[in-house]
Amino acid sequence: MRMRTFVIRRLLLLIPVLIGVTLIVFALTRVGNPAAAYITEKMSETQIEMVYEKYHFNEPTYVQYFYWLNGLVNLDWGISKTDGSKPVIESMATYFPATFELTMVSIAIAVFVGISLGTVSAVRRDKPIDHATRIIALSGVSLPIFVLALILQFIFYSQLHWLPLEGRYDVSLYLESGGFTKFTGFYVIDTILSGKFTMFGDVLFHMILPAVTLAFGTIAIITRIMRSSMLEVLNLDYIRTAKAKGLPNKAVINKHARKNALIPTTTVVGLSFGGLLGGAVLTETIFSWPGLGRWSTRAVLANDANSILGFTLLTAFVYVIANLVVDVLYAYLDPRVRLG
């Protein structure tokens, strides 16, 4: 019952946060002339006036905000000049599956590798594997994502010829032949639903380089937090008591220490998810990945304000939702949180 109350309270707290996000993004839309996104050099004075009237740019600012907010709720986020004058929401729906799929695979890699390395590093403190893990973590924090991408491309594509260089797996031939159906737009899911397991392997194969590149920095952060948390937990009295009772070291680590050490790590994982979505901009550009990151880069180069702000708003919403999920997981792992 207390868990349900905790979740309801967190959901209610989302309302002012989301309003604050919309206010900030709206303020950004009013830097300069907001009508510039809709006006071209070929428009007459009458057409320009129609634009001002249609989008209420001649109204007071607070009135513009309510019209703009109404447009957000009704999924009217403006027109994307970058994507052939399609609605921004339609363009985002087209590119979102590729980015979300890449982000999910990256966060899965980061969580598995980061927690594993952090645990091993803490258990084998000051051993060679601990030093190696700390070097990896330091490299992940220090190395820019575009440098890592170029290094991985050079090693695994140019020299070893093990992995493809760039691009999402092309399913167009399968679509034309009728052997594959796009149920969701997420190729990992659609290949399974279509029964194309060989194709499923090819999809994952094309994701290895961009996913590892995107995950590397997060692996470093999770590893460092997990190591620090594990070292703290391993020195607590109940761990010493468990060892004194003769419990196997593996059981002490897996059943007692790691669960409590995951509590601070959970926060980092949730916040890193939003960071991965933002970090996909560089990764998708370098690997020619057809997602939101690459689309937003083209929008910046084309000075497409609507597309840029749409991406900004979506990223902000993802951060807010990620924080909500983290709070719920935190409360699940540590009952003291929901009692506070």
From the spread of the alpha carbons, the general shape counts as: globular
**Sheet/helix structural class:** mainly alpha
Order of helices and strands: HHHEEHHHHHHHHHHH
CATH architecture of the domain at 97-295: Orthogonal Bundle
Mean pLDDT across all residues, rounded?
82
CATH class of the domain at 97-295: Mainly Alpha
CATH topology of the domain at 97-295: MetI-like fold
The CATH homologous superfamily of the domain at 97-295 is termed: MetI-like
| Beta-strand content bin | under 5%
How many distinct helices? 14
Strands of the biggest beta sheet: in what spatial order? 1-2
Helix share, percent: over 70%
Q: How far apart, in Å, are the first and last alpha carbons? A: 14 Å
Catalogue the unreliable spans. Answer: none
Radius of gyration: 24 Å
Number of extended strands: 2
Profile the largest sheet: 2 strands, antiparallel
